Amino acid sequence: MMTLDVRTTTPYAALLLRVSMGVLFLAHGLLLKIMTFGFAGTMGFFGSLGYPPVFGAIVAVAETLAGIALILGVWVRPVALLALPIMIGATLQHLGNGWIFSARGGGWEFPAFWTVLLLVQAGLGAGAHALDLGRLTGRGAVAARA
């Protein structure tokens, strides 16, 4: 009979969460905002919502960089916490559209859930198979923690 031990499963659960969110951030930042709409389109959209248009470029780049960092397992806790304002802003932006994200204009359940996932990731840390920057920079191996 197989027994599950949190000491062995938690690092892999954190890895799965980290890589999944990293892929989503790349889909939203790189594929959607940068490659599909372009910086001009994304900035125009943010401007149409009443935000300074430059926020569109900042969010697109931040989501792309966050996605790369999460997939690689680099600076996972700070990246998860720094991405929170983006997801909180997206949640607030969609509040008036209702709960379901498939509603016209997108509801708020998806960005709200993503906000919670970022908090969970910040609590868990990088998990298994995270890139060890200490070893790459010659500072020696740093023990990975879940």
Task: Report, as a whole number of angstroms, the end-to-end distance.
Answer: 25 Å
Radius of gyration, rounded? 17 Å
- Strand content range: under 5%
Q: Which structural category fits the helices and strands?
A: mainly alpha
What is the overall shape? globular
Please describe the biggest sheet, giving its number of strands, its sense, and whether it closes into a barrel: none
Count of extended strands: 0
**SSE sequence, one letter per element:** HHHHHH
Low-pLDDT stretches are: none
- Helical content (DSSP H or I, runs of 4+): 55-70%
> Number of helical segments?
6
Mean pLDDT across every amino acid position: 92
Task: Describe how the helices and strands are arranged.
Blueprint: H1 6-36, H2 38-48, H3 54-72, H4 76-94, H5 109-124, H6 133-136
Structure, explained:
With 146 residues, the chain is mostly helical. Helix 1 runs antiparallel to helix 3, helix 1 crosses helix 5 and helix 3 crosses helix 4.
